Amino acid sequence: MFFKDIIGQEEVKRHLIQSVKNGYIPHARLLYGPEGVGKIALALAYARYLSCTNRSEDDACGHCPSCIKYNKLSHPDLHFVFPIIKNDKKKKEICDDYLTEWRTFVGQNPYFNLRSWLNFMGAENSQAMIYAKESEEIMRKLNLKAYESEYKIMIIWLPEKMHPACSNKLLKIIEEPPLHTVFLLVSENPDEIIGTIQSRTQWLPIPPILPEDMDKALSSEVTDDSERSNLVHLANGSYLKALEIIETGLAVKEYLELFKTIMRNCWQSDVKNMKALTETFAGLGRERQKYFLAYAQNMIRENFLYRLNLPEINYLNLEEATFSDKFSPYIHERNVAELMEELALAEKHIESNVNPRMVFFDLSMKIAVLIKR
Predict the structure, then answer these.
(1) What are the pLDDT digits (tens) for 214-265?
(2) In angstroms, rounded to a whole number, what is the distance separating the alpha carbons of residues 32 and 13?
(3) Are 244 and 294 in contact (CB under 8 A)?
(4) Residues 337-356: what's their mean pLDDT?
(5) C-beta of residue 127 within 8 angstroms of C-beta of residue 118
(6) 254-287 burial string, b = 16+ CB within 10 Å, else e?
(7) By the 8 A CB rule, do 151 and 110 touch?
(8) End-to-end Cα spacing for the chain
């Protein structure tokens, strides 16, 4: 991964590159932000640039021995820690036991989340974590001399998933690492990392990808300008979310029809059709269910703004706007916040594998009350 391959994030790239040029190399950085915005890609590009022996002004050279090894993520001074599923039968207890799979996975697309990593391992419904034993491996590796590079680099993806025993054992080495050791912690929920590790790192926020950068990145995937504009808006700065929406194959028009149906049933308090619609939702599969709920949250927000006549921050296509002419009066100050909360809670429940029929029926009953306020 090179800086040039990363979607947007120009300000973050400039900051990282300039810090290397100035010789300012913090021993522990915490890159944090929403999923799908390029955090792990930035960590990899920064690590490559730091290790490159023939850097250009704005990127690694791509030709030196270090860069060639980085192409396969096999540089001997580059180390990874990431959540895994412990498998005693296959003797897989530490991250290095999954290193071959990890290199293949990251090499395919550096925009991913924990769910896609679990799917790749064939452990979708398992709980992954960084186990206590990993701390011994980290200290063993970092107490050795660097093989080829000036720096030993340890990338820890999702440090919030570290077992407390692992976190506590790493405090000393993160605070006072061996010479020329760099920790890059890549997090989506930094507040869940123990405070003593938080305080030992330099925080670097990674914001959502700008709409114009996302639009450019998606131009080869979605050629229709209107459809791509809606996709960019729904992705909300996450390239991963945009790709997942495309991969689900559920068009925005279908989301809109489902949204119109559930709102119509709720307004009419049509319990029979509410229940029938739960079967439709159950048949979508978990990913499509989640993206419908994300779309529904977006529609509630857009209808609230539509009612307030704020076109400069309102993004609706023609069909959505036509529907919103009549629907938007029902989304107002008395119910918008609670509607958003209930939809977000339903999305969280789907993520946690709660029965979708229960989730969508319960959601429908709550919407039926809120929409009539």
Answers:
(1) 999 999 888 878 778 878 887 889 999 888 877 765 567 788 999 999 999 9
(2) 14
(3) no
(4) 92
(5) no
(6) ebbebbeebbebbeeeeeebbeebbeebbebeee
(7) no
(8) 51
